[in-house]
Hints:
By secondary structure, this protein is of the alpha+beta class. It is built from 2 helices and 14 strands, in the order H-E-E-E-E-E-E-E-E-E-E-E-E-E-E-H. The strands form 2 sheets. Strands 1, 2, 4, 6, 7, 8, 9, 10 and 13 form a 9-stranded antiparallel β-sheet that branches. It has a 5-stranded antiparallel β-sheet with strand order 3-5-14-12-11, with no helix packed on it. Helix 1 runs antiparallel to helix 2 (189-215). The model is unreliable at 22-27 (pLDDT under 50).
Amino acid sequence: xxxxxxxxxxxxxxxxxxxxxxxxxxxxxxxxxxxxxxxxxxxxxxxxxxxxxxxxxxxxxxxxxxxxxxxxxxxxxxxxxxxxxxxxxxxxxxxxxxxxxxxxxxxxxxxxxxxxxxxxxxxxxxxxxxxxxxxxxxxxxxxxxxxxxxxxxxxxxxxxxxxxxxxxxxxxxxxxxxxxxxxxxxxxxxxxxxxxxxxxxxxxxxxxxxxxxxxx
Length: 216
């Protein structure tokens, strides 16, 4: 009986260690999304004067989706200086930024994309003066990665495009990505440990009760 109790006590101690480990390591697993973007500005209408605005897309970018929301860079608007005495006016000039996921936690993602559209309005009339704003259309289609669904928003609203003599004419574009995990939930380590400890306790009680019955 002593040997049996010793084994059961050892099992109970092991389960206790599992409980401690489970409670101490309740940390969200990383969900690293790697992506890039592509863009196009429609210059076929709404522009008066030579185009001065381009867009540098994001390349080899990455964010961690584990927390449920994260800020993500989409690229950079670039405003060039106009020629002396000239100006360019933008009146609802359309643009599109395409988000292209590359992989999630090292697993390749193919043929997935979502497009963010918007318009440019304002005037660039000197290297020191720009009133152009980029306004983003809402809502934006969700992006389904299989295990994650992503939605995109712009909490700060319009982007104000700075002239070429301010920050070299660079205006970065960021979106808030909100992610929803579509996988079946996995029990917390502490929950699993609690179940195992309960089962171990019941087994110990049954063992002791059986030995007492035999002894009687």
